[in-house]
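Section 5.1 Outputs to date
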Amino acid sequence: MNNEETEPAETEKIPEELVIVEDGEALYAVVRPELTDDENVELAVSVRRGLEEKTGVQFTLGTDWVKRGDAPDMEKPEILVGVTNRTSEEELSSLGWADWTIKAEGNKIFLLARSVRALGSAVEAFLSDGVTAMDGGRLLIRGLPISGSITLAAGEVPDYPHGDFVGMYESSGSTVIFRYENTTAENFADYLGILKDAGFELYDEHMIENNRFATCVNDVTTVNCSWFERTGTTRVICEERSTLCPLEDPYEEKYETLLTGMKGETVVASEGMGFIIRLADGSFCIIDGGMGDPNSVDSNKLMNILNEQKPEDVEKPVIAAWIFSHMHGDHIGVFNCFSLDHHDDVVIEKLIYNFPKEEEVKVSDSPYMLDDTIYRFTAFKKNLANYYSDVPILKVHSGNRFEVRNAHFEVLYAYDDLYPKTILDGGMNENSLLLKMTIGSQTTLWTGDFAFIATDLVLSEYSAETLECDILQVAHHGINGTVDFYSRVNPTYVLWPVWAGGFESMRNNAQNKWLIDSEKVRHVIVTGVGTWTIRLPYDPVDGTFDRTPTWKTKHPLYPALLGE
């Protein structure tokens, strides 16, 4: 990695020159830490190699290991490369992440830094002719102590120095994910300090249970960090700086908040998912949309709902956020049709999603999403370019939180969390976001088509304290979800985006039966029965609704407002 280095800052000079080689003999040994990473080892090797090239004399290279109970030999002449057991804690703590120093004390020469990158700059300075130079048959060190700092190149992020490195994964766009195991909360806090030393500013920091999340930014890069207490997992997610999660979204409360589930009319797919939230200022938040169709039936239906529910004095409905759980056609298809038919009829403020890279999609269970039909991701990208090139895109990650007027969202799972597995292991539905929405005092869990590997991961990282919600959208139209997951969510109301016959065919699947049999569940709302609207917070009047639809009432007409 390329580092731009500041000029070394000269401090108090030691008066005499240090002799490293004399009469063809090395007077000092090179020493590295016994327990260190490969990069630190290579830097110690480069010190030995550089000295040997200057002098033609062989140097020994050893480690700082000492027998248990013994103290290090502080009288032996040594060139110490990195943090060894000869380094005092006070001296180390005086250095920032980007700082390095070269100094001599007694018979020790210290090349010291907290980070491998800064240590690399110290090694480079040490081997320069200005510090180590031949004088006849002697190799001398002059001008100590010296120190300096490194500056990160554009887009560069400090290494995470703790735990066990699992690997790096290049996600879609500029996003790069680093995963570490066996890490602690103290490690997480230390890394935030390292980011600060490297010039990053803290944009947001919070906790969900004891799990910790932070977003740090500089002019060109955003770093999202997460640490999960139960698993000891840390993820560092780096990407080009773009739209940040809005932590505030000022609004004037004028209207009741409504939630509408839109029944899809398309014959292309029997399922689909489209939810419309009319927010307190009269703007909208849309979750997915549904499949769509070439005849524009569903896109026109969505436009009609927006026009019916928008404030009378507003010419064009304002979509404050359009959120996509994942890229399957029955979730982005209506958006594609709507974009062709109605892009000039609305104002869209932001689009929110986190999709996998196309190279993976091509060899996944859903390669068809890259063909050129109206329901696919190819059409989605064309619409973004043609109609929404100036609309901000918010790529969200686990632990992000954001406001859409009076709706507060927390991201409990995003595709980055799946690594080292990908959609090639579990299918495209493993890409589905898991979002917890709070409006007033009521919470809703949006699962999209949340799949099984992601479900197990979330269960390992969150307890019922986080997952329990008032309203649950069942996963994958009732196909996915597990008893363990739903019992932890333990909802009062259930939203079921599936056609009416599908509900009947799946109601006895173990996870769905658990929901239907739950004494806590008051109302199961099946979108395939018909388009419906409820007020949020939802508190239906007993006796005004059927707890679950039945096969005999397959196509009842829902009233204007359910439960009233």
